[in-house]
Specification:
binds S-adenosylmethionine; single chain; Rossmann fold; alpha/beta; disordered N terminus; about 35% helix; 14 helices; globular
Length: about 350
């Protein structure tokens, strides 16, 4: 079927909500604004090259587009599998009951208890994580199981994130949760909500957000530079570097979730010189203020035949005029729209969020 024919298929946007997320840099709250900015563009296939929480892929899926979600981190890829690629499979109450119990026929390791004692979660919670992740691994990587496993991982990650101070894993700071002090921040009730209850809630949220838009959507787990296919539109939302040169390195923030995706091999990937047992890794090019201009240039060159839609938070590196100059190397027309006074989670500053549209 040609692209022109596909564009004529009537599809009305379903009224389905994306699950709540506390993911750093998520564009969930900006979804309506992004939709307004792109809905008059002519495109059918779309790549969300730095997909993160999947909120923008979800918007495109609701618009009836053929969506390819991508993220370098495997834990995010599972979210893309669960909510974007998956059209029908849900996690049943029986599945959840199986996941939340210890079974006599399974030998449960104590890797998290042994490695992360007093780091992110209590002893009891670490035990819960050890057996639930082992249960999740009982799902295979084929057929319906592939999506059940992805939904279970999704619920596991969201539960782990909401129970963390700052919603991150960047420090050994369990004491912030457990110390008996007056608090002017944080959410003690959420931190102390049992894992079982969080998990069930997130499974329910995921299940209600799974739908079919009658397109073959897919999830990828690649470095954006390695994607070879062509798309009508490429949405680009890279990690952010502040004007002071401080970048967001997602693996630094979420290494614990990435470790959970490869539980059996996790121990061999840890940098044991760090107190908080992060994963060994090279610094990301997207968190390096000296390399980031070249990175954008390379990315725009790679996708120069597509409409480029670039999310940008004002006041960072590169500057907005540098982004425009780089886009103009490859595209004839560069427009921008801005959403003022958008406030990010955990930030007191109101920032200007921009969208560059290059066609
Ligand atoms: C600003 S976040 C994207 C947020 C997303 N739009 C949302 O609504 O949640 C940037 C994402 O880029 C991913 N990332 C970092 N380097 C990458 C690379 N080289 N290729 C693909 N994804 C990458 C990170 O894991 C992170 O999830």
């Amino acid at each position: 079927m040609s692209t022109a024919q596909q564009l004529t298929i009537p599809f009305s946007m379903p009224d389905i909500a994306f699950p709540q997320t506390r993911y750093q840099g998520s564009k969930l709250k900006l979804s309506d604004w992004i939709r307004d900015a792109v809905e008059n563009l002519e495109f059918d296939t779309v790549l969300d090259a730095f997909g993160g929480s999947g909120s923008v892929s979800f918007l495109f899926k609701k618009m009836g587009k053929r969506v390819t979600y991508n993220d370098l981190l495997t834990f995010n890829y599972y979210i893309g599998l669960a909510l974007i690629e998956n059209a029908h499979v849900i996690l049943t109450d029986n599945d959840v009951d199986f996941l939340l119990e210890k079974h006599a026929h399974i030998a449960y390791p104590s890797f998290i208890q042994d490695t992360f004692h007093d780091t992110y979660f209590t002893d009891e919670e670490n035990d819960w994580l050890d057996y639930v992740v082992t249960n999740i691994e009982q799902f295979s990587d084929d057929g319906e199981d592939k999506y059940k496993k992805a939904i279970a991982f999704f619920a596991l990650f969201q539960s782990a994130i909401i129970k963390r101070p700052f919603n991150l894993f960047h420090r050994k700071n369990l004491y912030i949760r457990t110390a008996d002090v007056e608090r002017s921040f944080g959410n003690k009730t959420t931190w102390e909500k049992p894992f079982d209850a969080c998990f069930r809630d997130f499974v329910a949220e995921a299940n209600q957000s799974i739908f079919c838009n009658h397109r073959r959507n897919s999830a990828l787990n690649q470095d954006a530079f390695e994607i070879v296919d062509d798309y009508d539109l490429v949405y680009i939302d890279t990690p952010y570097i502040s004007a002071k040169g401080v970048g967001v390195d997602y693996l630094e923030f979420y290494h614990f979730l990435e470790g959970l995706t490869d539980y059996k091999n996790w121990g061999g990937k840890i940098n044991y010189k760090t107190k908080h047992r992060k994963l060994q890794h090279e610094k990301s090019i997207w968190a390096n203020k000296k390399l980031i201009h070249n990175a954008f240039d390379q990315l725009f060159a790679q996708f120069q035949d597509s409409i480029l839609v670039v999310s940008y938070r004002d006041g960072g590196i590169p500057t907005s005029s540098e982004i425009v100059a780089l886009l103009k190397k490859y595209k004839g027309k560069v427009d921008f729209v801005n959403a003022t006074n958008y406030q990010y989670v955990l930030s007191n500053d109101k920032t200007k969020e921009l969208l560059f549209i290059a066609s």
